[in-house]
Amino acid sequence: MKERTRLDQQIGGVKHAEQTLKDNVDFIALGEEEGDPEVVAEAERVLENLKAEVERRQLESMLSGEADSCDAYLQVNAGAGGTEAQDWADMILRMYIRWAEQHGHKVSLLEKSDGEEAGLKSATIRIEGENAYGWLKAETGVHRLVRISPFDSSARRHTSFASVSVSPVVDESIEIEIEDKDLRIDTYRSQGAGGQHVNTTDSAVRITHIPTGIVAACQSERSQHQNRAHAMALLKARLYEEELRKREEEQARIHGEKTDIGWGHQIRSYVLHPYQMVKDARTGVETTASQAVLDGDLDMFLEASLAHRLSTGGAESGGKD
Fold first, then answer.
1. Best exposed site among 113, 177, 235, 251 by fewest CB in 10 Å?
2. pLDDT tens digit sequence for 123-151
3. Cα torsion for 226, 227, 231, 234, to the nearest 10°?
4. Largest CA distance in the chain
């Protein structure tokens, strides 16, 4: 049913675009015939908007990787730098939540570790929506902020870093084998407002996959059993994402291409002082509307990253196995 709904939406979108094109071409002809420039101008405006929509749908049609249609887990970690870096991590998390909400996606907070004074040390959210992973997968990497720090009494300029990791929510049709002997499971007390049930029991769960060192944690539920199930699902997603990353690196190696995948790669800079600019290091796309980007206006970067990955022959762009 999920696949049928997706296909119905895609077909409906194409039919709508075709009808809109036909109607407005007719309006332009009618307006010119009757000498009504307002009708012509309005039809041309609609066609300009249609062009942008069709270009976006063209990109979406290329989201054919085996995990692209999945929901996404997104984790943010503050870099070194104390409160300033932790505040930046909080800003990054807010940016992705705003983007998801603007696209009608559902956002759930799975785990959050607050900073000492402000911001956060780490947080993990789940974003549920069509092609959520396909759009966000290229966001994995290091994000750099340059600004006058509100936490510096001397008002000096600071550079802060936060890392983002995106993993697909693994579909039940994808089997991930994990042996119990490879797991270390720890329970701890959840962070939360004073007096909440989560704050009084060791309900939070952290699972470590010993062979890879990959860690997944969840503290959003009241029940330790529920948190363990969510943490295990997140662990499977990260193991699967790691396998996809290895495949892409291998394909790049075979074709003699340099790959920019990995935690150490700085993918985007956000400059708030001495000028306003957000620039993507991989695609060269930039904008001076820094606040709009931090409020979730990320589509120009996501679309450019997807087009860039497709043009360089990413492992997942070839379709489903």
1. 177
2. 999 999 988 999 999 899 999 999 998 88
3. 70
4. 79
